[in-house]
User: What shape does this take?
Amino acid sequence: MTVGNDQAPSGIRTSKPDELHVVRQPLPRHDQAEKIAGSTRYAGDFAFASMLHARLVRSPMPSARITARDASAALAVPGVVAVLFGEDVPHNLIWVDVPGQTVEVAALKASMEVLTTDRVRFHGEPVALVVAETEDALAQACEQVVVDYEELPAVFEPDQALAAGAPRVHETGNLLSEWVIDRGDVDAAFASADVVVEGSYQTQPVDHAYLEPEAGVGWLDDEGVLNLRVATQVVEHYRDVARILGIPEARVRVIAPYLGGGFGGKEDMTVEPYLGLAAWRTKRPVRMQWTRQESLLARPKRHRMQLRYRTAATRNGQVIGQDIDITADSGAYAYLSALVLLYSSVHACGPYRVGNVRLRARCAYTNNPPTSAFRGFGGMQVVFGYEAQMDLLAGALGLSRAEIRKRNAIVRGDRLPVGQVIETEVLLAQAIDAALERAGDKPLPSGEGKVVGRGVACNLQSYGRCVWLNDSAAAWVGFQLDGSLSVRCAVPDVGGGQASSLAQIAAEVLRVPMDLITVHFGDSALNPLAGTTTATRQLLMSGNAVYEASSALRANVLRAVARTTGVPADGLALDEGLITGPGVAMALTEAIVLCRRLNVPIEALGTFFGPKGTPVVKNLQADRVFPDFTFGAHVCDLEVDLDTGGVELLAYVAAHDVGRAINPRSVHGQIAGAVAQGLGMALLEEVVVEEGVNLTAGFFQYLIPTATDIPDIDALILESGEGMGPFGARGIGEPPIGPPPAAVASAIEDALGVRPTRLPITPERVLHCIAAAGGGPLQEQR
Amino acid sequence: MTATITTTLTVNGRQICKAAPAHLSLLRWLRDVAGVTDPKYGCGEGICGSCTVLLDGEPVSSCLVLAAQADGAAITTASGLLEPDGSLGRLQRAFHVTHAAQCGYCTPGMLMAAAAALAGSQRLSRQEIRARLHGNLCRCTGYGPIVDAIELAQDEAADDRGK
Ligand code: FES
Ligand code: FES
Assistant: This one.
């Protein structure tokens, strides 16, 4: 069975539920027991007896010229081994537009220094790397590194950064990237519209706030290979480290143990280049662990976006035009901003048919902390805009919120504004109905001074990387002589059950019991490369690679048995360690010996190539930008306290068409976790940066939801049976994080009659809505 | 030079006696000096609960306690909840059944908060369980399966008492 680009171009997969044995079973993940026993060794849990410790000295100001640096006092601290500046880095440059193993990203080329040499552009930028024998010496020495700064003009608002005469963050100017969509005749659509609604929405920067801060250990092994065992979503960063050190890629190995969460924050390099540098220079094992404060201070955030929408519709609720302007804050460096903005552009009209679209999306450099990948990746912020517009339309036309959405919901065969046709079955309208049915009657207020609201929000989110990136994933599957199975695939497991799902896929194809399967993951040297655990791509990519390898292995074994017994391979079945057919009953272990006798391999390598497409530079018109999309509908019930503006979440239902649920438990886990993270963004979280200074660099200041903030989340799984992953699975890691902020705003509008348009929806902002609803001045929301 | 002090703790029933800098937190002492890595570092400021251990039966954020202050105490961490044969203990089995660990980084701390919550004799409602977990952050699960696990363990304990 072959898959990939030589098959049907779309690569759609399907499966029949009654033919599946292991897939669709809510099996306990194989990594659970160790984690619960407390014995899983995360990146920071690994230590060498005589290792060194490393830490960064970071810029205290957002925009300055470095006028002098002096390491002598730091070097005089007993136990200090090295103090490194940019000049000590062999190739002091990180290309920030090329994550992992891919080849090119449109026309953008941007870079940043590993350690900045003459200019700092954000508060927290790395300036020096200190290495010492003990943590105490390290702390002391870091304070002794002298760096003199001369303050430079700075800019903190994207709009201002794009205005003429703004201080330049980079010599190339402050416009980092721009995307445009121009489809149909927008002016004619608006001229002929029965109703036009308009809105402006503001999203905030937020932090991934995984519980495991960035950490790792680096050492040289007996072959002289630089090993980095780090918390990362991308083992392929070994290439970047090799380039920085000026050594062959084959001399660097990245090992990703189980991660304590990633959410996109461990997609760009974090500790890797510094650990590599320290271990390479000192030839000794080195550990680096970022503090929570450091992680919150300086690691890239989710993009703050200003979204401006004008939407035209007919009397019967058909959306006929969208006019959209998006401005995003990239912060001080490019990182993945151009791609994030591409996602925003492609997803900006939501899961709805729109014939006429004008969109301009721009991303500006500022002297704020950089922004980059975060679960939902630009496809997430725009939900807050397009779903507000749908509610406005519903109100203007007297339609229910469900009805306006169902009338416009994308179905198979519809074309997205960029030009891509949706080829798989889509169950969006069904998801809306299922979520509303599960939600039941709207709850009643708990007492005086309380009002209750119900919100609805839908979304689409791509799974699989942008098709211009030439994505691929490989996996190796091999029988051991006792019939147990080894799966080798360098996929990093970020906590979503990535490795466990691969075992389940192999178990389905080869009918080997789950407890006889071992998955070796997250190692760039010893396992076939599988690419990044990002972009909701691993089930699609590694899943298909394991499927392909397992299928080839199964064919090998059956072929050997066929040759010996004379029963054709397609008349043979492999099930639970036994091969059966007319007059045939052979133990798998016997067949394995047979394979060796007949020179038939008992292992197979599968490489899956993602769908391809031709990159466009600015004007988005393309037959395909992403492999496919996942669709969902959420319903949120909440109560507003009219005195305090406090919001209590009462119930939350999230329904997604996942194509086929490989492991329903893992799917539930992904949905509930993403919803909780989205609710944090809706109500609580904000990276507060004033004049470039990050004021939320600690969990005291940066609040994420606790167990009392989140209601029980009801995750509904719909299975269209069609997707591009194995057995027709669609990706689900990112999609459910999109709707919550819009669903909460929708519910508040339902309760109060006025919609919050700015995130997070704090009690203060709710009080503004209450005042406006009571006839108070409807001011610009702040 | 930093002053060194010898501290003796009984960790999961095993006595450990080590000299270390006097200012080390219990968390760092356990992880970096004693090699007990199941309590995790998440914030170092008493907010996230990843470092929660039982100190003479009481849950504490081990990042906020000095190891020296705890001298002589009995410490229980997640691995201390295992059965003598090394299999998962009751509370841990409940976490396993309800799929309460995703990335698992919060889990060792969460288990200790859960163990402390279940130590009392009165039955906790879901809302009360949530309140007991207030000092333990989880970014992966949305908390539901963790609350399910504690409810399950509580029910099983009640069944046992009924027998
Ligand atoms: S590390 Fe102790 S509470 Fe966070
Ligand atoms: S399971 Fe990842 S933080 Fe709780």
